[in-house]
Automatic annotation (TrEMBL):
<protein>
    <recommendedName>
        <fullName>Major facilitator superfamily (MFS) profile domain-containing protein</fullName>
    </recommendedName>
</protein>
<feature type="transmembrane region" description="Helical">
    <location>
        <begin position="65"/>
        <end position="86"/>
    </location>
</feature>
<feature type="transmembrane region" description="Helical">
    <location>
        <begin position="308"/>
        <end position="326"/>
    </location>
</feature>
<keyword id="KW-0325">Glycoprotein</keyword>
<feature type="transmembrane region" description="Helical">
    <location>
        <begin position="366"/>
        <end position="390"/>
    </location>
</feature>
<dbReference type="Pfam" id="PF00083">
    <property type="entry name" value="Sugar_tr"/>
</dbReference>
<dbReference type="InterPro" id="IPR005828">
    <property type="entry name" value="MFS_sugar_transport-like"/>
</dbReference>
<feature type="transmembrane region" description="Helical">
    <location>
        <begin position="268"/>
        <end position="288"/>
    </location>
</feature>
<dbReference type="InterPro" id="IPR036259">
    <property type="entry name" value="MFS_trans_sf"/>
</dbReference>
<feature type="transmembrane region" description="Helical">
    <location>
        <begin position="397"/>
        <end position="419"/>
    </location>
</feature>
<feature type="transmembrane region" description="Helical">
    <location>
        <begin position="23"/>
        <end position="45"/>
    </location>
</feature>
<keyword id="KW-0812">Transmembrane</keyword>
<feature type="transmembrane region" description="Helical">
    <location>
        <begin position="431"/>
        <end position="453"/>
    </location>
</feature>
<keyword id="KW-0813">Transport</keyword>
<dbReference type="InterPro" id="IPR050549">
    <property type="entry name" value="MFS_Trehalose_Transporter"/>
</dbReference>
<dbReference type="GO" id="GO:0005886">
    <property type="term" value="C:plasma membrane"/>
</dbReference>
<dbReference type="GO" id="GO:0022857">
    <property type="term" value="F:transmembrane transporter activity"/>
</dbReference>
Length: 495
C-alpha cells in the first residue's frame, strides 16, 4: 500500500485511506449538489425548447418566470424542515431523505403534460434542495479533516458548475424529457453513496454516543496523533456539555441562544454571505443565460454557443477554486472574487451603454462578452465557493442545525426574489442596468463582510467556535455556564 502504515488498537491504515474515506463520504453530498446545479440551470434549456412552435406544452411569460423562480419558495419549506431533521435524524439520514423529493420531482417532470405539473415537479425539487442547502456544508465540514476541509467545501461550487454545465449540454443535444431523466440520475447516485458512509462523528458526540463517535471518527480520519488529539477535544467538549434534558420554554431558550455571540455573529455573517451569493446573479445567470447573452452579444455569437461559453468558464473556474480555496485564505479568495466581479459588471454595463448609443462599431459589438466572462470567472472563483465553505465552518456544533436553517432562509428568500424579478429587470432597465444594480449590491455586501468575516482556514471547528465565544481555550473543557446549551438546543429543535 502507498504511504507509511500506521497501527493503533490493532488496526492498520494507510495515510491515504482516511482521505479516500472522507472523499467517499463527501462524494454523496457532491452528487446531490450536482443535481442542484442542474435544477437551477435546467429552465435555461427547458424554456427555450418549450418556446418552439412544435412544442407540446405552451407556456405564458408568467408561467416561465414561475418555473424558474418557484425553487426559491419551495426552498423555504425545505429550510424550515432541515434544522429539525439534522438535529433529530442526523446528517446521514437527512441526506438520504432529501434525495427522495428531488427524485420524485424529476420523475414528475419527465411525465409532465401541463404547466401545473411542471410547477409541482419544480416545487418538489426545491423542497429537497432546501433541506440539502442546510445539510450539505454541515455534513462536508463534519466529515472532513481541517487540512482537506477547504477543498471539500469548495466542491460545492464545483458541483453547482458541473450540474449547470450538464443540464445545458443535455438540454442542447437531447429532448427536454430525456435531459430531465439524465439530470435526475444524480440523485439516485447520491442516495447510493450516502448510504455507504457512517454518521458524522460530531453529531454522534452531541447525542452522547461516544463509542460510535470514536468508531466513525477513526474510520474517517485514521489513528495519527493529530487526529487523536482532535477526537479527544471533540469528546471532552461534548461530555462536559451533555446533560439530561429538562423542560424549559422554547421561546425563552431561543432568546437565550440568540444573545450568545457564537450564535448571532455567525448567523449575521451567513445572512450577508447568502445575500451576496444570490445578488451576484449566481442563480439568475444559469436560469436566463440564453436571453442574457443574446443582449450581451447583440447576435454576434449564436445564443447556445454563448451559453456553453459561460458554462465552460464557470466549470473551469470551479475546478480552479477547489485548489485555490484550500491554498489561500478564505478572506483573500472571497474579496478577490468580489473585486473582479464588481469591476467586470460595471465594465460590461458601460460597454453596453456605449454600444447602445452607437459608440462601438458593428464589427466590435461582441466586446461586452469579454468582461461578462470575466464576471463569471470572478463570481465562480470567490463568491460561489466561499459562502458554502464558511457555512460549514462558522456555526458552533450545538447550534449548527439551527444556525444553518436560519441563514438558509435568507438564501431561499433571495433566490426567489432575485430570479422572479430578473425578467422584469431585464425588460425595464436591460442587462446593462441590471448588471449595475448587481455590481452595487455586491460591493455593499462585500464592505460589510470585510469587517465581519474572520479567517477560518486551517482551524478546527472547535477553534472557530472558541473565536466567536471570545475565549482562547481549545482543549474542549467547557465553562460551567456552557453546560446548558445542549438543553436549550433540544428544546428549540425538537420540542
Amino acid at each position: 500500500m502507498v504511504g507509511k502504515m500506521l497501527e493503533n488498537d490493532g488496526y492498520k491504515c494507510s495515510k491515504q485511506v482516511p482521505f479516500l474515506r472522507q472523499l467517499l463520504a463527501v462524494s454523496g453530498v457532491v452528487m446531490y449538489m450536482i443535481g442542484t446545479g442542474a435544477n437551477i440551470a435546467y429552465p435555461g434549456v427547458l424554456l427555450e425548447q418549450l418556446r418552439q412552435p412544435d412544442s407540446a406544452l405552451r407556456l405564458t411569460p408568467d408561467h416561465e418566470s414561475w418555473i424558474a423562480s418557484i425553487l426559491g419558495l419551495a426552498l423555504i419549506s425545505g429550510i424550515v424542515v432541515a434544522p429539525f431533521s439534522l438535529q433529530k435524524l442526523g446528517r446521514r439520514l437527512t441526506n438520504q431523505l432529501s434525495s427522495l423529493p428531488a427524485l420524485g420531482g424529476w420523475a414528475l417532470l419527465v411525465t409532465a403534460k401541463d404547466p401545473t405539473v411542471l410547477l409541482i415537479s419544480r416545487s418538489l425539487q426545491g423542497f429537497g434542495m432546501g433541506i440539502q442547502a442546510a445539510a450539505a456544508p454541515v455534513s462536508i465540514a463534519e466529515y472532513s479533516a481541517p487540512k482537506h476541509r477547504g477543498a471539500f467545501l469548495a466542491t460545492i461550487a464545483f458541483s453547482f458548475a458541473t450540474g449547470m454545465l450538464a443540464a445545458h449540454v443535455f438540454g442542447t443535444i437531447l429532448y427536454w424529457r430525456t435531459a430531465a431523466l439524465a439530470c435526475g440520475s444524480c440523485y439516485a447516485i447520491s442516495l447510493l453513496l450516502v448510504s455507504l458512509t457512517p454518521e458524522t462523528p460530531p453529531y454522534l458526540a452531541t447525542k452522547g454516543k461516544f463509542e460510535e463517535c470514536k468508531k466513525s471518527f477513526r474510520w474517517l480520519r485514521g489513528f495519527d496523533d493529530e487526529s487523536e488529539k482532535e477526537l479527544e477535544v471533540l469528546l471532552n467538549s461534548q461530555k462536559n456539555t451533555f446533560v439530561p434534558r429538562k423542560k424549559v420554554s422554547k421561546l425563552k431558550a431561543f432568546l437565550e441562544i440568540s444573545k450568545k455571540p457564537e450564535f448571532y455573529k455567525p448567523t449575521v455573517i451567513m445572512m450577508f454571505m447568502f445575500v451576496l451569493f444570490q445578488i451576484s446573479g449566481m442563480t439568475v445567470v444559469p436560469s436566463y443565460t440564453v436571453p442574457m447573452m443574446e443582449e450581451v452579444t447583440d447576435g454576434a455569437i449564436e445564443s447556445y454557443t454563448s451559453m456553453l461559453m459561460v458554462d465552460v468558464v464557470r466549470f473551469v473556474t470551479a475546478v480552479l477554486s477547489c485548489m485555490v480555496v484550500n491554498k489561500l485564505n478564505r478572506r483573500t479568495v472571497l474579496f478577490v472574487g468580489i473585486i473582479i466581479s464588481v469591476l467586470a459588471l460595471f465594465t460590461t454595463s458601460f460597454l453596453l451603454y456605449l454600444r447602445d448609443f452607437g459608440y462601438i462599431a458593428d464589427d466590435y459589438k461582441w466586446i461586452p462578452v469579454v468582461p461578462t466572462l470575466i464576471y463569471i470567472f470572478g463570481k465562480t472563483l470567490g463568491i460561489l465557493p466561499i459562502p458554502w465553505a464558511i457555512a460549514g465552518e462558522v456555526f458552533p456544533l450545538a447550534y449548527r442545525s439551527l444556525g444553518s436553517g436560519i441563514s438558509g432562509m435568507f438564501l431561499s428568500l433571495m433566490f426567489f426574489v432575485v430570479v422572479k424579478t430578473a425578467p422584469t429587470s431585464f425588460r425595464q432597465i436591460g442587462v446593462s442596468g441590471t448588471f449595475c444594480v448587481y455590481g452595487l449590491c455586491i460591493a455593499i455586501c462585500g464592505a460589510f463582510l470585510y469587517y465581519l468575516l474572520p479567517e477560518t482556514k486551517g482551524k478546527t471547528l472547535y477553534e472557530i467556535e472558541c473565536h466567536f465565544k471570545g475565549i482562547k481555550d481549545t482543549t474542549g473543557e467547557a465553562e460551567p455556564h456552557e453546560k446548558d446549551k445542549m438543553l436549550e438546543l433540544e428544546n428549540i429543535e425538537g420540542g
